[in-house]
Design brief:
Two copies of one chain form a homodimer. Chain A is built from 17 helices and 16 strands. By secondary structure, chain A is α+β, with helices and mostly antiparallel strands. An eight-stranded mixed sheet of chain A has the order 1-5-6-11-10-9-7-8. In chain A, strand 12, helix 14 and strand 13 form a beta-alpha-beta unit. Chain A is elongated, with a radius of gyration of 29 Å. At the A-B interface, helix 1, strand 1, strand 3, strand 4 and helix 5 of A face helix 1, strand 1, strand 3, strand 4 and helix 5 of B.
Chain lengths: 438, 438
């Protein structure tokens, strides 16, 4: 887990603030949930691997009976939040009367997973989730995709696509190839590698995992047909290829209709896109960067009409999107995408010096006056040699220093020193504010 | 632990943003640390009671050896953050070369304590800490107090005082009364009640706890003298009372000098103010509300020159202040101190209706156009009876609805309905933006 020093936080907040602003402009409202949930709320929601990766909290005081404890569940009743979707479902089920029946929320908070840390993988990391609860209309998907696209544009991402799929379309292709249910996962994991390794290797992997050779070959054939049609351009929409899908395929038509609502060249239907299959019940979405060193996903989402029903009595349709903040930050850092005022941000606009013990009050007054003028002002903490004060100012990279020495105090002026050019001039306090305020 | 629904978060963010803005205007920089710390970092820092109240995290996988576990420490190696001071000390000790030698940081994050929940006391709550590390100069105290005062002014608090004391002054008074070290705590707890219950009861409590009757009587006498001098007004500074303190008392002179740097009628020297005595080494500070139902402390701080040395090899002077966010919020709520745009905030400026399945795209386009004009826009999620759409808009309290029906579409106009007055007019899209943008 990481400490975030000031320069990190400024970059994180720059991205988070854009995400918040855009989501709020779409009418999504902020929600925050506690870091700690009841253990039973989380158990069984993330599969066996997830159960292992949940950080569990030791029972306290009398509740901790070490002598008779036989398993983890005797020792723990609370756990750290593992994602933001399960807490949302709990909040919706618990606050039915307070929340509107169509509830749009965003939530940007850390989650914790007891994973082995690796490059770009942390045990504490932020998720940025946006979800709309209570409608099964396609308008929800359209607004989510539009909002996410706006965020990426405002962050200055250029080379990305948003892949769309539908659970039924994916399974229809598996059925066409006669892949039995037990082999779905293996087949999909292998197919996902087709844009990285040759087809014969992918086919071998599938067969090695127990997929019937005929099915493997049909699947690769389907993928290739779709991919080739795709390469002919945007108008030759691959899922129109009549060899593959009939005109009355509902999932296909759903996606075409959605595409029609969002005329944008960044969108693509990707019939083999598979993610969140344990809970996604309809639309599946993913943002993929297409240029630069990092080519993976920086976010994804989908429709999960069955999940909230696990917490209340009622089935409530829902659809959401999650942005990978940590990945976005890594890519933006590598590509130098932060605006200069963020990348080179400094703790203050100006530092005020202290001439002597007797003039401390004068320096504090000057600082107060400059702050009233809208400047961010730090004061050197003690009467000290001027050279040391300037050296400190340089070390924290403040762009200007206000020297308040004996002659300046006598003249009721200050000497303003530009730390970049070394130039300095003796001017009035109001001139300082004017010179530094942008 | 609590969920924060949208209306809560807007109020919390209003307060947090003012705190951030003010601290940044004083040159304090943001810092964030992980929720989870190594257990050994936290143990022994908060006394026996604190050790009990730390939430401990169960070891995972192979590390959890239930069979041979004999104590909590065999079961846990990580714990949840208990305050923001110990993590700061760890960060400063770990990042000596990256941080400036005089480091000013603020940190606003939740902490967790396994306390019994009570009114206004939560197991997860936010702390707002501001600290300056690396200088023992009084300038640090002066800037901290000035910043905190600015925050309270901006939040519109009027009836409060900031109490100042010095550890040496407090102990000097205890010495004057010949209170032995073992009774310091009992004596101070009793003295603290003098503004609530009669003196004879306080005296009885002290004697009951084992304080020598003579000492108890002298202490109450000292308190009364100081209190009476106080009531004569600001100029008759109580610690000037020569019967109590000699002119060369260093702690007294220190506080007078500090007061001199901060000419403000909200400041008062409070020689019996006792808090954080386990680590405060000099100045002690506390903000107390003096009017309304709630009269307690909403924040406090002090100088702790010995704490950081516990984590590194070096003793580094430090001084800080912590604001009680939860208490501030409770008081502001009770007193109606939130500005109307926060207290009555709504999820969007306007809701766009959907006429029919065929016109969904038109509604989405209108929403996009209004957003480009700077408005926050939500779209009703489906084609539905107009009455139901209006009813939903009313339930989420959006102030305006844009109706986009057949006739409006034909005329390339929209009907803008004011939800408060019920008035509506059919106007162009740019007129909508103009009408709603403030």
């Amino acid at each position: 887990m990481r400490d975030f020093l000031p320069a990190d936080i400024r970059k994180r907040n720059y991205v988070i603030n854009i995400i918040k602003e855009v989501y709020e402009s779409y009418g999504f409202e902020p929600l925050e949930t506690p870091a700690v949930e009841n253990l039973e709320t989380l158990m069984g929601k993330y599969g066996d691997e997830g159960n292992q990766l949940v950080f569990k909290i030791l029972k306290r005081g009398e509740k901790l009976d070490l002598e008779h404890a036989k398993s983890e569940s005797d020792l723990s009743d609370l756990a750290l939040r593992y994602d933001l979707t399960v807490p949302l479902a709990r909040v919706v089920a618990n606050n039915k009367n307070e929340l509107p029946n169509f509830f749009k929320r965003y939530q940007i908070q850390p989650v914790w997973r007891a994973d082995r840390p690796a490059r770009g993988r942390f045990r504490e990391f932020y998720q940025c989730d946006v979800d709309a609860i209570g409608s099964s209309s396609m308008v929800v998907e359209a607004e989510l995709i539009s909002a996410v696209g706006t965020i990426l544009r405002r962050l200055k991402f250029k080379d990305y696509i948003i892949k769309l799929n539908h659970r039924d379309l994916l399974f229809h292709l598996l059925d066409l190839a006669n892949v039995p249910k037990a082999s779905h996962e293996d087949a999909l994991i292998a197919i996902d590698k087709l844009d990285k390794i040759p087809a014969y290797q992918v086919e071998a992997e599938m067969v090695g995992k127990g997929v019937n050779a005929g099915s493997a070959s049909v699947l690769i054939d389907l993928y290739t047909k779709i991919d080739n049609a795709w390469k002919l351009g945007y108008d030759n929409n691959p899922i129109l290829v009549s060899e593959v899908l009939s005109d009355d395929n509902e999932a296909k038509n759903y996606l075409l209709q959605l595409l029609n609502l969002l005329p944008c060249e960044k969108l693509t239907i990707s019939p083999f896109l598979a993610r969140g299959l344990a809970y996604y019940s309809g639309t599946i979405m993913e943002i993929v960067l297409t240029d630069g060193d990092f080519k993976g996903s920086i976010g994804g989402g989908g429709r999960y009409d069955g999940l909230i029903g696990m917490f209340g009595k009622e089935q409530i349709p829902a659809c959401g999107f999650s942005l990978g903040l940590e990945r976005i930050l890594v890519v933006m850092e590598e590509r130098g995408m932060f605006p200069p005022e963020i990348a080179e941000s400094v703790p203050a606009d100006v530092m005020v010096t202290i001439w002597s013990e007797e003039t401390v009050g004068e320096s504090l007054n000057l600082a107060a006056e400059l702050r009233k003028g809208g400047l961010r002002v730090t004061v050197y903490p003690e009467a000290d040699k001027l050279g040391r004060q300037i050296k400190y100012a340089d070390s924290i990279k403040v762009p200007f220093v206000c020297v308040l020495g004996e002659s300046e105090l006598a003249e009721k002026k200050v000497t303003l020193k530009n730390m970049k050019t070394g130039e300095q001039e003796t001017i009035s306090r109001s001139e300082v504010i004017e010179a530094l305020r942008k």
